[in-house]
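Action item from last week, closing it out:
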Amino acid sequence: MAWIYLLVASVFEVVFALGTNATNGFTELVPSIVTIVAATGGIFFLSLALKTLDVGVGYTVWTGIGATGTVVLGTLIFGESMNVWKAVAFVLIIGGILGLKLSDKLTTAA
């Protein structure tokens, strides 16, 4: 269940980051409310995940998914630039996340 909480927290993290971009310095009401709710939801679900997961693993996965999701959606929604080096970096981040998830399973099984 901790990994599900972490995925939900990561979705909130992406919404938070994208929402922050849309707030125009917290001068736009609806994006500001969405951003605050997303930040609260992200931290809440992260705290639930960290009841079981090591903080180093949970936080790293949370920020990794948040960063990767933000870049992908920022490219699609806001037309931000994407190049080969960014794509390689995101593949490495995803590989690190998968490695942490696998290491958690291997530690539990041992």
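Closing note: The CA atoms of residues 93 and 99 lie 10 Å apart.
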